[in-house]
Each structure stands twice: as structure tokens, then as C-alpha cells.
């Protein structure tokens, strides 16, 4: 395997796993704090049990998220020293703030996990809230670092030199808001659906129904609400991409030819040689409308972009279709849940309804990974959009393929363990919380 | 502001050593504890570090962030030539952090899986500080050779040399020493206290021996460590202070009422060692083969970045330090 491909694969793998651990690690504390609040207010012991059970999940995911995040802070340098050398001082601001937020989160988590019966009730609750808030803040900060790579600002690039560096301007680049918003909502909908799905399975199997029903409700309210909001934020992101990264937008849509009444292509197999999409469903004018709010406006296609500056079209297109497809289904499931909650209470207990959520368990994370693929692969061949190519950034150390194999092994093992631990946690619910 | 950032860098490294290092030490002590006592030692250790270990390791993140934001050239050179030890360090960090959490949060505590977590935990607790030491030693040993043509000379001998490895073992011994001293104050059981004091003494002797080996290795590799340390007033003073505190420590270690003092003394000793080395080489941070080096005072990011980083760190520490202090205070074992 080529070193460059190996380095990219290793980075993709590391981020792909880290994104799951960290999304769960940042959203579950919010669920936990809500359940905790309910316990303090209602004194219903089931809420206390749910809080404790979730806090164990949080501890597991925080630890895996923290170590995989530590790895990433090194991998940036280990794999992309050429990038970090120049980018570090420019986009480092959110990273240093993220360091602070992450630190606060670790401190608050220490208080929360070990504070039962030791701390004042409301202070204890507050530390749980701090875990959630600082976790989300960390997420937003890291994503704004990534958004800088998509939409670099805060410096002047003159003759290969990076001058007039302004870290604050780099942090608040044009894409930071839309990307952070999209990612945060995605974290809530993916984690909400995943957690709800697992509890739905337990309700379906009639195990500790009271416990799992309360857990399900807290998780799915967030998941469903986020899934309904997500298309709006997606629209903001796509408009931003059209403006700042036309190559990415064109690859997402597999949109080859610049034209008026630009069509939106749903599905299909892009044929890059023939510059067309086979078997796709074309809706004329819709792309123009989505991007420019006008069916007539010209949208720039891949033909406006030199081939050497184009991202891999097929991968970006498929990933985008997967993300949007699953996202749309999740939105409908979310709407269905609110209908059930307000109008059709009896649905909530019916097997078909539970099955729907059981099947949807991994959906959010599949969409999230697909979306991440769109943003990262769609930025290629650039590591800093329009400024530095990914191939210029890679380490000169040979043999990266072996570290890639090693990391693949580690991440898979780690994930097997996390699943194993969660399974055992759920398996022990009757014994731990039924007394 | 540059000096503020450098101060934070050294403070973060020192705190990581004193706090994170002691966590590694907990695993090292467990590795060298007889099976009869392992269970009790593990429990005491867990009570001591459970609530605080995640926070202790954040100092490493702070260190890395300061390096890549403030000193990107230094960071990328280290990442290139010390890729392999950094990689092993990372593997150690992953294995250790997850094994520690998993063994506590596994809902079913059967012997087989617990034994598996324990194994991973103790061995990674040994390997991680070993490679931290190797990385630190390599930055200073002058064996990194950017002109090397083949893989082994460029990426292996940069860190695989007598000096770096000796520093690695010295680091391991110091971590064990810190943990053994800290844990003396975590129990009231007289036999345990005796055991831990014995461990502290043994690890202290090990640290002194490894320290001597570092000097020997320095001579073999022509690093010139003794020249640096004895030729610099601050370094020399720090070494003398460390030695005096060591002697004092041996005198008062067995007295129960001195338990807080011996912690401070041990931390003081280790800080003095770091200051001694840091001061002798300052502002050089990475030294290459042939004597050229990268300096904290010249190889830094632009002034704008350094200013923002310094302000960020100052504001961050306003939040972190009180919270961290309160965390330690809340989970300190109450003296009877």
C-alpha cells in the first residue's frame, strides 16, 4: 500500500471511530443529567437507576473518546507534519480552548461519577450538567478547527508563506457555524436513536419495562427533535459548500455540467468517464432552487473545475446519498414519534412501533459517518481548501501501511470491547437495579 | 507573552509527570506487588486515583496543544523523527486508559476478564512512561539525524540509543517512586503502610540507580549530561536541592504524622530533576546530531498566535485550576 493512501486511511479510520465515541460521550451526559433531574424532583428510584446506568456508559465512552482523541492530537503530527507545521499556529486556537473544555469535562466527570452520597445533591447534579456542556463545547471547537480546513481564513497566503496570522479570525471562519451546528445536531440525533433503539429492544423483550421505558423516552425526544431539525441545518451547510467549495457540492450531487435549471440527482451510479449519472432520478431545477433559492440560476458543475482539483466523485456522491436518505427516514420516524406522543398514545406500546426504533438503532451513526465522508473526501485533494494539497502534508517516514494495519486492529478490538461491556451492562440491569 | 506560554509548557510537563506519572506508577507498583497483596493494593490505588486520573492525563493534551500551536516546527520535527516511540506511547495510553476504565465498569466481575484487564493495565503502565522517558531523552540526546539516508538511522537510532533508553527506565522508576510515596497516605492499615514504605524505598533506590545509569549512558553516547548540569548554576542548585530532599525523605518517611510532608518532598524532588534538565538546556528543546537545535525562543509561531495562545491558557487556567483544586480537596481521604 502506498504511504500516502495508508496515511489517509489511518486518519479516516481514527476519526471514524473517534467520532462515534465522542458523539456518544458528549450527548449521553445530557440524557444522564435530565434523568438525574427527574430523580431529584420526583424521587422515583427508576430515574436514579437510569442515571447510574447511563453514567457507566458515559464513563466507558468518555475514556475511549479521551484516548482516541489523545491519539488524534498526535496523529495530526505523526501523519501530517507538513500540515501541522503551517496550520498549527493558524487553527490552533479552537484546539487550545478545546483543551480547556475537555479538562473541565474530565474534572466534572470525576465529581459526578464519584460524588454519589458525597456531594450536595444540586452540586452533584450541576457537575453532570457541566460534563454535558463542556463536552458539547469541545465538540463545537474541534469541528470549527475542521471547518477552517474547508474554509480557510485568518491569514494571507503569499508566495508559499503564511502571513498576517489571526487565530481568532481563523476560528470564526465562514463555515464554523454551519458545520458545528450540523455536527452537534447529528450527534444528538445519532446518539438519541442509538440509545432509544437499545432500550426499545429491551421493552420489546419485556425486560425491566419501567426502567427501559423511561430511558427510551428521554433519548428519543432528543433524537427525534434533532432528526426533524437536521434537514434545515443541512440546507445551510449545502448552501455554504456551494459558495466556498463548489467542487465538493458538485461531487456530492455528481453534477457534471454547468447549466441553468440545474437538476437534483437522487441515487444513481456516476460514470466519471462519460460524465453522467446512470439510473439516477433527476428533478430539474431543484438543485438551482436549493442552492440559490431560484429554479433558473446557473449552478457551477464539475466541468468548471480542473480535474486535478476534483475530489473522488463516486465516493462523495454515494456518501451524500446515504446521509440524506437515512436522514430523511429518521426525520419521518421522528415525526411519527411526536404524533404518537401527542395523539396516538397506544402506538407507544405496540410491537411494530418498537420494531421501527430497534431497526433504526444504527441509522444515525451510519448517516453521521457518511456525512463525515462527504466533508472530508469532498475536500480532497486539498487538506487546506485551495491552499495546501493533502499530498504535500504527509509525513516522509516510510512504512505507514504497517501503522495503519496496527491502528485498524486496535480500533476494532476496542470497539469489540465496548460492545461487549455495554452488552454486559444491559444484561445486568435486572440484578443491579431491581432490588 | 512568549514566556507565559513557555511557563505553561513547562508547568504542564511537570504536572503531567507529578500527577499522570503517579498514575502510571500505580500500575508499576501493582506489577511489582506479590499476589497475596495485589487485591488490597489495587483497591487502595483505585480509591486514590479513580476520581482524578482522567484529569491528571489532561496535562499531556495541554502539552501537545501548546507544542503544536505555539511551536509547530518543533512539534512536526519530533513527530517525524520520533514517530515510532510516539506511536508506542499512544498504544500504551490507549491500552492503559481503557483497561483501567473497563475493569471498573465491567458489570460482571469474573476472574478471567478482570485478570485480562489487570494484565493490560500493569504492562501498559510500565511501557507508557518508559517511552515518555525515551522521547524526552531523545529530544535531548542529540541522536536525531535529519540528514540520515536510511530508515534505521533516521527513525530508529534517533531514539533507540543507550541514553534515551536509560532516561526511559529512570522515568519508570520515578513514576513508581511517586506512586509509592503518594499511596502511603491513602491507608490506615499499619501493615500496608509498612509495605508501601518499603516499596517507596526500593523504588527510590531504583530511581537513584537508573539516574546513575543515565549519566553513564550519557558518557557512552557523548551527550554531555554532567557537563550541562554541573556547568549551569540553576541546574546544579536544583540537583543539590533534590539530593538534600532525598536525604530528608529517608529520615522522616517512617513517621506517620509526616505523610503529607513526604508527598511534597517526593514531588519537590522530581520537579527539581525536571528543572535541572530544563534549565541546563533552555531554550533548546530538541537537539540534533551535530549540535544544531530547535529553540523555544526562536522556533515559535508568529507573535499573534503566541499572544492569543497565552491569553487562552491564562483564561483556561482560571477555570481549570480552582475546579481541579476542589476536585482533589473533595476526594482527599479524610485523616482520622
Please give a structural write-up.
- The complex is a heterodimer of chains A (435) and B (336).
- Chain A has 435 residues and is mainly alpha-helical.
- Chain A has a domain at 184-251 and 306-397.
- Chain A is built from 15 helices and eight strands.
- Chain A has helices at residues 3-42, 45-79, 81-114, 121-150, 167-171, 176-204, 209-244, 246-253, 286-292, 313-342, 351-359, 363-377, 390-393, 400-427, 429-433; strands at 156-158, 161-163, 264-266, 269-271, 276-278, 281-283, 382-384, 388-389.
- A two-stranded antiparallel ribbon of chain A has the order 1-2. Chain A has a two-stranded antiparallel sheet with strand order 3-6. Chain A has a two-stranded antiparallel sheet with strand order 4-5.
- In chain A, β4 and β5 (276-278) form a beta hairpin.
- The N and C termini of chain A lie far apart (56 Å).
- Chain B is an all-alpha fold and 336 residues long.
- Chain B has one domain (2-330).
- Chain B is 79% helix and 2% strand.
- Chain B is built from 13 helices and two strands; from the N terminus they run ααααααααααααββα.
- Chain B has helices at 2-31, 35-49, 53-70, 72-81, 83-105, 111-141, 151-156, 162-184, 190-220, 225-230, 233-252, 259-281, 303-330; strands spanning 284-287, 293-295.
- Chain B has a two-stranded antiparallel ribbon with strand order 1-2.
- In chain B, 52% of the residues are buried.
- Classes of the chains: A mainly alpha (435), B mainly alpha (336).
- The interface between A and B is large, with 68 and 62 residues.
Amino acid at each position: 500500500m502506498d504511504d500516502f493512501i495508508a496515511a489517509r486511511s489511518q486518519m479516516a479510520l481514527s476519526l471514524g471511530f473517534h467520532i462515534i465515541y465522542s458523539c456518544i460521550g458528549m450527548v449521553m451526559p445530557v440524557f444522564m443529567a435530565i434523568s438525574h433531574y427527574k430523580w431529584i424532583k420526583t424521587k422515583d428510584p427508576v430515574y436514579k437507576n437510569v442515571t447510574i446506568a447511563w453514567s457507566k456508559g458515559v464513563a466507558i465512552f468518555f475514556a475511549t473518546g479521551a484516548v482516541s482523541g489523545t491519539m488524534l492530537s498526535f496523529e495530526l503530527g505523526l501523519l501530517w507534519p507538513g500540515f501541522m507545521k503551517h496550520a498549527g499556529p493558524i487553527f490552533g486556537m479552537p484546539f487550545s480552548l478545546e483543551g480547556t473544555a475537555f479538562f473541565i469535562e474530565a474534572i466534572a466527570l470525576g465529581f459526578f461519577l464519584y460524588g454519589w452520597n458525597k456531594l450536595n445533591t444540586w452540586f452533584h447534579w450541576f457537575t453532570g450538567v457541566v460534563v454535558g456542556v463542556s463536552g458539547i463545547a469541545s465538540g463545537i471547537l474541534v469541528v470549527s478547527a475542521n471547518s477552517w480546513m474547508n474554509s480557510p481564513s485568518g491569514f494571507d497566503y503569499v508566495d508559499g508563506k503564511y502571513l498576517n496570522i489571526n487565530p481568532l479570525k481563523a476560528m470564526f471562519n465562514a463555515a464554523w457555524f454551519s458545520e458545528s451546528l450540523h455536527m452537534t445536531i447529528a450527534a444528538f440525533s445519532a446518539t438519541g436513536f442509538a440509545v432509544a433503539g437499545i432500550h426499545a429492544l429491551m421493552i420489546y423483550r419485556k425486560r425491566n419495562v419501567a426502567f427501559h421505558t423511561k430511558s427510551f423516552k428521554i433519548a428519543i425526544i432528543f433524537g427525534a427533535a434533532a432528526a426533524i431539525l437536521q434537514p434545515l441545518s443541512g440546507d445551510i451547510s449545502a448552501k455554504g459548500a456551494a459558495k466556498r467549495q463548489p467542487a465538493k457540492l458538485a461531487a456530492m450531487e455528481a453534477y457534471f455540467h454547468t447549466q441553468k435549471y440545474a437538476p437534483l440527482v437522487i441515487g444513481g451510479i456516476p460514470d466519471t468517464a462519460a460524465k453522467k449519472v446512470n439510473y439516477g432520478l433527476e428533478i430539474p431545477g431543484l438543485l438551482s432552487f436549493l442552492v440559490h433559492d431560484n429554479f433558473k440560476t446557473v449552478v457551477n458543475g464539475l466541468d468548471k473545475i480542473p480535474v486535478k482539483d476534483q475530489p473522488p466523485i463516486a465516493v462523495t456522491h454515494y456518501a451524500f446519498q446515504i446521509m440524506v436518505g437515512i436522514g430523511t427516514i429518521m426525520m419521518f420516524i421522528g415525526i411519527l414519534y411526536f404524533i404518537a406522543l401527542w395523539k396516538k398514545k397506544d402506538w407507544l406500546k405496540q410491537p411494530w412501533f418498537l420494531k421501527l426504533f430497534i431497526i433504526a438503532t444504527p441509522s444515525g451513526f451510519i448517516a453521521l459517518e457518511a456525512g463525515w465522508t462527504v466533508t472530508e473526501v469532498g475536500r480532497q485533494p486539498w487538506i487546506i481548501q485551495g491552499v495546501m494539497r493533502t499530498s504535500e502534508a504527509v509525513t516522509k517516514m516510510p512504512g505507514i501501511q504497517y501503522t495503519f494495519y496496527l491502528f485498524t486492529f486496535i480500533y476494532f478490538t476496542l470497539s469489540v470491547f465496548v460492545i461487549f461491556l455495554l452488552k454486559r451492562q444491559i444484561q445486568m440491569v435486572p440484578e443491579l437495579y431491581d432490588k | 507573552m512568549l514566556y507565559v506560554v513557555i511557563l505553561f509548557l513547562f508547568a504542564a510537563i511537570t504536572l503531567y509527570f507529578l500527577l499522570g506519572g503517579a498514575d502510571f506508577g500505580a500500575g508499576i507498583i501493582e506489577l511489582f506487588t506479590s499476589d497475596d497483596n495485589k487485591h488490597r493494593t489495587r483497591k487502595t490505588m483505585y480509591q486514590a486515583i479513580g476520581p482524578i486520573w482522567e484529569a491528571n492525563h489532561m496535562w499531556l493534551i495541554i502539552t501537545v496543544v501548546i507544542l503544536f500551536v505555539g511551536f509547530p516546527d518543533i512539534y512536526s520535527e519530533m513527530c517525524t523523527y520520533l514517530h515510532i516511540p510516539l506511536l508506542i506511547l499512544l498504544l500504551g495510553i490507549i491500552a492503559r486508559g481503557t483497561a483501567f476504565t473497563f475493569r471498573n465498569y465491567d458489570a460482571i466481575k469474573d476472574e478471567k476478564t478482570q485478570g485480562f484487564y489487570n494484565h493490560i493495565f500493569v504492562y501498559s503502565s510500565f511501557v507508557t512512561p518508559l517511552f515518555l522517558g525515551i522521547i524526552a531523552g531523545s529530544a535531548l540526546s542529540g541522536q536525531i539525524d535529519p540528514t540520515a539516508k536510511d530508515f534505521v538511522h533516521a527513525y530508529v537510532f534517533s531514539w533507540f540509543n543507550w541514553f534515551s533508553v536509560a532516561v526511559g527506565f529512570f522515568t519508570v522508576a520515578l513514576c513508581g517512586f511517586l506512586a509509592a510515596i503518594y499511596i502511603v497516605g491513602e491507608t490506615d492499615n499499619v501493615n500496608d503502610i509498612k509495605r508501601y514504605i518499603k516499596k517507596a524505598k526500593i523504588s527510590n533506590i531504583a530511581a537513584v540507580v537508573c539516574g546513575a545509569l543515565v549519566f553513564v549512558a550519557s558518557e557512552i553516547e557523548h551527550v554531555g549530561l554532567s557537563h550541562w548540569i554541573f556547568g549551569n548554576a540553576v541546574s546544579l542548585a536544583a540537583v543539590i536541592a533534590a539530593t538534600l530532599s532525598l536525604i530528608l525523605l529517608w529520615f522522616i518517611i517512617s513517621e506517620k504524622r509526616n505523610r503529607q510532608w513526604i508527598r511534597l518532598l517526593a514531588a519537590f524532588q522530581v520537579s527539581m530533576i525536571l528543572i535541572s534538565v530544563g534549565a541546563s538546556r533552555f531554550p533548546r528543546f530538541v537537539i540534533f546530531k551535530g549540535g544544531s537545535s530547535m529553540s523555544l525562543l526562536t522556533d515559535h509561531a508568529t507573535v499573534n498566535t503566541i499572544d492569543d495562545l497565552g491569553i487562552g491558557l491564562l483564561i483556561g487556567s482560571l477555570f481549570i485550576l480552582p475546579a481541579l483544586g476542589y476536585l482533589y480537596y473533595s476526594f482527599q481521604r479524610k485523616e482520622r
